[in-house]
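Q: Tryptophan synthase subunit beta, please. Structure only.
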Amino acid sequence: MTAQTFQDYENLLNQNYKDAVATLLARYDPATDNYFKETSYQRFLDGKIKSLAKGQISRTAEGLYCHHIDENKFLNMANPSYIRGQKIPFSYQEKDRLAYYNLIEYLVLHALISSETKYHFGYPGLIAYLQSSVIAWYINGIKPEKSWERKYHEKLSSQVIKQLYC
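A: Structure for Tryptophan synthase subunit beta:
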């Protein structure tokens, strides 16, 4: 995995959402597990259990977020309340509907989703979480407090520093 340049991010932003996802799937390889375990998911939707069991989807050590490709169709697809409220079928949680991105790429994807869906999808995540993290971490210089967020921050920061000095 090579460090991304400003030009890479700009090129991504100039694509449509579908093409941007394809670009990033090729860059980071697809997921190898479903976001949630299928048996857990169905039992959760049936009201038999209160929480969902996650699959082995984490790539935090690489500084990569796991993203639901279909966030242009549903809101907050990893949140149990939203899953139940929107009745999101398990097929949208399967590994072929997941991809990985760094924080800046994730922000770009949510901007594309917001634009293409006229702010119906993508915008809450863009403003409430992604944009605020980028501003806090990279503009205001505030280090994340949570250990898993520090991994994202450190990986992307080291990539940016290499670009500036290499």
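A: Brief note, in case it's useful. Helices lie at 6-13, 17-28, 38-45, 80-86, 103-116, 123-139, 147-165.
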